[in-house]
Amino acid sequence: GARGRNWLFFGARSFWSDFLYQSEWLEWRKRGLLERIDVAFSRDGAEKVYVQHRIQRRGRELYDWLESGAHIYVCGDAQSMAPDVEQALLAVVREHGARSTEQAEEYLLQLQRERRYQKDVY
After folding, report:
1. Which one of 21, 54, 104, 117 has the lowest number of neighbouring Cβ atoms within 10 Å?
2. Non-local CB neighbours of 32 within 8 Å, separated by 6+ positions
3. Dist. CA 63–CA 92, nearest whole Å
4. Tens of pLDDT along 4-52?
5. How far is residue 98's CA from residue 84's CA, in Å, rounded to a whole number?
6. Residues 6+ apart with CB under 8 A from 82
7. Confidence (pTM)
8. 15 contacts 44 by C-beta, under 8 angstroms
9. What is the DSSP string of the chain?
10. For the chain, how far is it from start to end, CA to CA, in angstroms?
């Protein structure tokens, strides 16, 4: 029932054992419920690839989505993943929003105040 565009960044260790909702998400993409899907599997290649790498690679587009009113929901590991994703978001806002570190931090805080940046981390 979500309105608007949806973009999923999904990360896990292995495509073969951890891409649990692949068929559902691909069906949602086919039906237009998900506009974009970017995945990262950290143990499948020679180099570890994480969600924060995908975020930074898509930084320009992600920043444009944020400027258009997008919401961000971060779910998963609180110890490593969530802080790393936040650092990637800060880098995106700094680079593509031409902001200082302090201004980027304030930008994310404002998103949190507006409930457009929320975390469900454990």
Report:
1. 21
2. none
3. 7
4. 899 999 999 999 888 889 999 999 999 988 999 999 999 999 999 999 9
5. 21
6. 74, 76, 119, 121
7. 0.91
8. yes
9. ---S--EEEEEES-HHHH-TTHHHHHHHHHHTS-SEEEEEETTSSSS---HHHHHHHTHHHHHHHHHTT--EEEEE-TTTHHHHHHHHHHHHHHHHHT--HHHHHHHHHHHHHTTSEEEEE-
10. 27
CA 107 from chain centre, in angstroms, equals 16
What are residue 120's DSSP bridge partners? 75
Query: Six-digit token pair at 76?
Result: 């998963």
**Amino acid identity, residue 5?**
R
Q: Which two three-digit tokens encode residue 70? A: 């997008």
Counting Cβ atoms within 10 Å, is residue 120 exposed (0-12), middle (13-18) or buried (19+)? exposed
Cα distances (Å, whole numbers) of residue 6 to 1, 2, 14, 28, 62? 11, 8, 23, 10, 11
Q: Give the list of residues 6+ apart from residue 23 with CB closer than 8 angstroms, or none.
A: none
Token duo for residue 25: 């998400």
